[in-house]
Amino acid sequence: MGESSSSSSLSLTQQIGVAPLIKRLSKHLTRKFAKIFFILSNHKIAGSLGALAGFVIASVFAWKFVRATAGQRRRQKQTSDAAVEATKAVLGKTAKNKFNGARKMTCQLLGVILEESSPEELQHHATLRPSVVEVLLEISRFCDIYLIEKIFDDESGERVLLALENSGLFKSGGLMKDKVLFCSTDNGRLSFVRQLEPDWHVDTNPDTLSQLAGDSEAYVHEHKI
Q1: Cα–Cα–Cα angle for 91, 95, 99, rounded to 5 degrees
Q2: Per-residue pLDDT tens for 38-62?
Q3: Cβ-based burial of 59 (10 A; exposed 0-12, middle 13-18, buried ≥19)
Q4: Biological process (GO) annotations (predicted)?
Q5: Are 190 and 208 in contact, with CB atoms under 8 Å apart?
Q6: What beta strand segments (E) does 64-163 contain?
Q7: What is the pLDDT of residues 5-19, one digit of tens each?
Q8: Which residue has the higher pLDDT, 122 or 95?
Q9: Is the model more confident about 20 or about 137?
C-alpha cells in the first residue's frame, strides 16, 4: 500500500514538473531568438549575416539540448516528448515570424549545415548535422533555400548530396537537389550569391561577408545583407 502511494506521488510530481519545464524552455528559446533578430533589425550589413548564422547555430544547439535531455530522461518519456514538441513549436513560430515574406535564402554548407569545415574534409566524408534538418525544414516552408559550397572534386559533391538525401531533406519538397550548388573557389560562391540575389545569406567566411557588405547601398538594404 505504501509502495503504491509512493509510486502515485512520484507520478504526480513528474506530471506537475512537465508544464514548468516546457514553459522555461520555451521562454529561454524565445529570448535567444528575439535577441538575435533585434541585432538583425539594427545591423543590416555584414553583421546581420553573422547574426543569421547565429540564429541557425542557436537553433541547432537548442535542438541538440532537447535531444540530449530526452536521452537522459528515458523514464520520463512523456515529459521529454512534450519538451521536443514545445521546441518544434517555438522553432516553427520563429521561422514564420522572421522568414515569412522572404523569397530566397542562400547558405554555405561547411560549418553550418555540415560537420566538416573545409573542402579537404569533403574529399573523405560529408556529415550532415542531424539537428539542422528540422531548422531547414521549417525555413523551407517560407522561402526557397539554396545551399552553396566550394569543393575540390566531383566526388565531394556526390558525398554532400548523398548526406542530404539520406537525411530526408529532398523528400519534404522544401529542398531540391538542383538548388545545391557547387563551385571551386570562394569567389565562385560569392558569384552565386550575387546572381541569386537572396533575401538572406549565411556564410562563415569573413572575406565573403565583407565583399557582400561592400556592394552598393541599395543592394545591401534591399536584401538585408
Answers
A1: 170
A2: 444 444 433 444 445 555 554 544 4
A3: buried
A4: peroxisome organization
A5: yes
A6: 104-108, 144-150
A7: 444 444 444 444 555
A8: 122
A9: 137
Domain count, the chain: 1
CA Rg value for the chain = 20
Name residue, grid cell 569543393.
151
Q: Of 60, 55, 22, 20, which Cα lies nearest the Cα of 40?
A: 55
Strands 180-183 and 200-202: unpaired
Whole-angstrom distance, CA of residue 160 vs CA of residue 182: 10
Q: Is the pTM of this model over 0.85?
A: no
Enumerate residues 6+ apart whose C-beta is below 8 A from 179: 144, 145, 146, 147
- CA separation for the pair 125, 219 (Å, rounded): 37
Dist. CA 193–CA 198, nearest whole Å: 7
Pick from 176, 207, 178: nearest CA to 190: 207
Question: Half-sphere exposure of 7 toward its Cβ, with a 13 Å CA cutoff?
Answer: 4
Model confidence at 89, pLDDT cuts 50, 70, 90, reads very low
Among residues of the chain, what percentage have pLDDT more than 70? Answer: 49
Range of the structural domain that residue 67 is part of = 2-222
Closest listed residue to residue 34, CA positions, set 80, 93, 89, 88: 93
Distance CA 116, CA 125 (A): 8
- With a CB cutoff of 8 Å and minimum separation 6, the contacts of 14 are 76, 78, 79
Grid coordinates in use for 166? 539520406
